[in-house]
Amino acid sequence: MLRTLLTVGGWTMVSRVLGLLRDQMLARYLGAGPTQDALLVAFRLPNMFRSLFGEGAFNAAFVPIFTAKLERDGHDEARRFAASVMGALTGWLLFLAILGEIFMPWVVRLLASGFTVGGERFDLVVTLSRITFPYLVLICIAALAAGVLNALNRFTMAAAAYASFNVVGIVSILIGAYWLGDTALCSAWGLTISGVVQLGLLLWSARRAGITLVPGLPRLTATMRDMLKRLGFGLIGSSSTQINLVINTNIASYLPAGSIGWIYFADRLTQLPLGVLGAAAGTTLLPALARHAARNETPEGHTALNNAIDYTALLTLPACIGLIALAPGIMAGLFGYGHFTTHDVIASSQSLTAYAIGLPAFVLLKLLTPGFYAHGDTRTPVMIGFLSIGLNLVLNLLFFRPLAHVGPPLASALAATVQAGIFAVILHRRNVFRPSPTLLARLGKMSAASVVMGGVAWAAARHLTPGLVAWPGLARMSALAALIGMSGALYLLLLALMGIAAPRGMLRRLRRS
């Protein structure tokens, strides 16, 4: 499992690094202001569907059933089931897209009710959202193709295809900034074009794997009803984090111009470890847990979940502490260029600190949710997801006035922590999650090493950050890289001294996986 996780995580890392470059360019050419706010609101729905379908609910509903059909009924029956699902999904999404295009002004009111109707930002969001909305259709069908590949244990292309999202995005920003003179408009078109590219790559890869995916006539069989039921509950159960982000965006629309940008860039940095670790581990964990559940292999299921938590915690815990300790320096080093001012750097670093507090919970949710789905339970995550959404909304309303742009991220972090805790308790009672004494001991040592590393990094950053914004770009990036590298080396040294991650032991675990 570790080797597969590293493959998916490696490609996800490539995608996230490209995404970071794309975000740097958006910050450089648009800064944090009304145009940036409008573009980011236009991206919110497509990004939400990309996270839900590409990394969440659709995989949770489709992959276990498709895997079971493949195991029990053979290749041809599994392909027919996929074609039927694809036909139903395509028809529904096209209908949804047409409605969205017609009623886009009302959709924007839901996403950013703080924007004045008929104002410059509102009109721009409507225009950009109509360009980006077709991406929903493309990425959801692409998620089906990726689910087929994952069920066939072909994880590479399913992970690599999403990197094209950012490659096309980077090209579109450059065209807008240096050729057509409208970065926001070109970025919106780039999003939709990237959906075409992703879908094409995944369909081609599925065909090479022996399954040609074309929409078929939907058949409302018992299996299809089961999948639709799981998908309906799973969309809500997996969407709590994304809905919380939508709530954050809506609340931020009432704050001063630029607040949406500050929160967005902070969230994107949190998404880097979350996507590489949480999404990759969740993607590879679900088929494994589904197989163990189908075979009544309870101890093996415990081991798989414990190993996934162990692998991800090794990097999640230092990432959490490191982001908190180095937030101002990271924002200055990565985004403090062009139209992104010193004030923007300070404000966004405050949002980043709040998001980072919840990073372990965000990752843990990605790992615990498959524990429900693998046993066919999509109802429980839905109910807890509603609780998390309600808690996030209440906390947002309490925080956003006194804490401004720090309120929405802090509300999401606290809501995710409560949700992860409830998930863990329920799965423990159901004998799905049994953290071993070895895992708990290792988590304690990892946490201690992370805190020591964070303290040293914070002390070093205090002397470096104040002058970082004034440095030339290359020197700034070099200083930030050196600081992060020093912190990482210290963390690895502490792990080795504690016997957690000795090089030989890690190699042995990789070979066994």
From TrEMBL:
<keyword id="KW-0472">Membrane</keyword>
<keyword id="KW-0573">Peptidoglycan synthesis</keyword>
<comment type="similarity">
    <text>Belongs to the MurJ/MviN family.</text>
</comment>
<keyword id="KW-0133">Cell shape</keyword>
<keyword id="KW-0997">Cell inner membrane</keyword>
<dbReference type="GO" id="GO:0008360">
    <property type="term" value="P:regulation of cell shape"/>
</dbReference>
<feature type="transmembrane region" description="Helical">
    <location>
        <begin position="352"/>
        <end position="369"/>
    </location>
</feature>
<feature type="transmembrane region" description="Helical">
    <location>
        <begin position="187"/>
        <end position="206"/>
    </location>
</feature>
<dbReference type="GO" id="GO:0071555">
    <property type="term" value="P:cell wall organization"/>
</dbReference>
<feature type="transmembrane region" description="Helical">
    <location>
        <begin position="132"/>
        <end position="152"/>
    </location>
</feature>
<feature type="transmembrane region" description="Helical">
    <location>
        <begin position="480"/>
        <end position="502"/>
    </location>
</feature>
<dbReference type="GO" id="GO:0009252">
    <property type="term" value="P:peptidoglycan biosynthetic process"/>
</dbReference>
<comment type="pathway">
    <text>Cell wall biogenesis; peptidoglycan biosynthesis.</text>
</comment>
<feature type="transmembrane region" description="Helical">
    <location>
        <begin position="227"/>
        <end position="247"/>
    </location>
</feature>
<keyword id="KW-0961">Cell wall biogenesis/degradation</keyword>
<feature type="transmembrane region" description="Helical">
    <location>
        <begin position="439"/>
        <end position="460"/>
    </location>
</feature>
<dbReference type="InterPro" id="IPR051050">
    <property type="entry name" value="Lipid_II_flippase_MurJ/MviN"/>
</dbReference>
<feature type="transmembrane region" description="Helical">
    <location>
        <begin position="311"/>
        <end position="340"/>
    </location>
</feature>
<feature type="transmembrane region" description="Helical">
    <location>
        <begin position="159"/>
        <end position="181"/>
    </location>
</feature>
<keyword id="KW-0813">Transport</keyword>
<dbReference type="GO" id="GO:0005886">
    <property type="term" value="C:plasma membrane"/>
</dbReference>
<keyword id="KW-1133">Transmembrane helix</keyword>
<dbReference type="InterPro" id="IPR004268">
    <property type="entry name" value="MurJ"/>
</dbReference>
<comment type="function">
    <text>Involved in peptidoglycan biosynthesis. Transports lipid-linked peptidoglycan precursors from the inner to the outer leaflet of the cytoplasmic membrane.</text>
</comment>
<dbReference type="GO" id="GO:0034204">
    <property type="term" value="P:lipid translocation"/>
</dbReference>
<protein>
    <recommendedName>
        <fullName>Probable lipid II flippase MurJ</fullName>
    </recommendedName>
</protein>
<feature type="transmembrane region" description="Helical">
    <location>
        <begin position="89"/>
        <end position="112"/>
    </location>
</feature>
<feature type="transmembrane region" description="Helical">
    <location>
        <begin position="381"/>
        <end position="400"/>
    </location>
</feature>
<feature type="transmembrane region" description="Helical">
    <location>
        <begin position="406"/>
        <end position="427"/>
    </location>
</feature>
<keyword id="KW-1003">Cell membrane</keyword>
<dbReference type="GO" id="GO:0015648">
    <property type="term" value="F:lipid-linked peptidoglycan transporter activity"/>
</dbReference>
<dbReference type="Pfam" id="PF03023">
    <property type="entry name" value="MurJ"/>
</dbReference>
<feature type="transmembrane region" description="Helical">
    <location>
        <begin position="272"/>
        <end position="290"/>
    </location>
</feature>
<keyword id="KW-0812">Transmembrane</keyword>
